Amino acid sequence: MSKRFSSGRLWRVAVLAAGLLVFLSGCDRRYLIFNPSGPVAEKELHLIILSAVLCAVVVIPVLGLLIFIIYRYRDKPGNKAPYTPEWNDSKILEFVWWGVPIIIIGILGVYTAKTTYSLVRPPVEDVKPITIQVTSLDWKWLFQYPDQKIATVNYVEIPAGVPVQFHLTSDQMMNSFWVPELGGQEYTMPGMAMRLWLQADQPGTYYGSGANFTGKGFAHMKFKVVAKPQARFNHWAKQVKKTAPVLTEAKYQQLVQKGLAEKQTYSSYPEKLFLDTIDRNGGKYMKPGMKHGGHDMSMMDNDNE
Description:
The protein has helices spanning about 1-25, 40-70, 90-120, 230-245, 250-255, 275-280, 295-305; strands spanning about 130-135, 140-145, 150-155, 155-160, 165-170, 175-180, 185-190, 195-200, 205-210, 220-230, 265, 290, 295. By secondary structure, the chain is of the alpha+beta class. The strands form 3 sheets. The protein has a 6-stranded mixed sheet. Strands 4-10-9-6-7 form a 5-stranded mixed sheet. The longest helix has about 35 residues, at about 40-70. The radius of gyration is 27 Å and the shape is elongated. One of its GO terms (biological process) is ATP synthesis coupled electron transport. One of its GO terms (molecular function) is copper ion binding.
């Protein structure tokens, strides 16, 4: 009986160890948030690791004490543990189990606030950023380039090593824009414009998706972020400008309709389409100078001119 129990326990330990090894060896592109490819994602990964370490400071000792207490104070013949039914207080223990969590929460709060506020600025200051306007639709993504005056659907190309400020809104229900290898997610909401800084350090293709459930086509709300050297990006933008069709207002209204869409590229789009989309969904009821998603829309309008 004891042999069967021992072998069974060893088998469970081996399975747990194998699972742990698989998890720890999984920091490749299959686990995208653990494969940061830009400064924003690196900062957020450092915060995740810090949170995990600080949580382990509590979880591991608690689990160890649980095992120790169960073993040490189990009922057994000849148990000589002192019987103290009137015990109800320990100043030392109270200090430990209140003091340690307070310290951990304080450390997490400071680093989280510091990291969060740093992410509202460009990842690097010595490179001129570009702006891309993003509109989530059912069930597709529209990307507009105010500087290049071009647009794409379900894919976006960016220059590697250049900060990109994404202006985000929605012309359908709320969604969430997420490129895990480049940074955290940000909501897209009708009538509002949110902002998100991202940057790809190296050329490559990065997975992006909608991270908020929006109906039966939600699983297909994926897109590719293609990072290229600046020269290749400029060449691509010029080729699009020369060869792609125009995104007309009628074509945009077709895109707004619920349904899936393939990758598309356009050489131009209606002027102020992005801001008109925000106004149509309630933004026009906000007074001049008021902020959409924490940002002054009059300033955003100036950015696009």
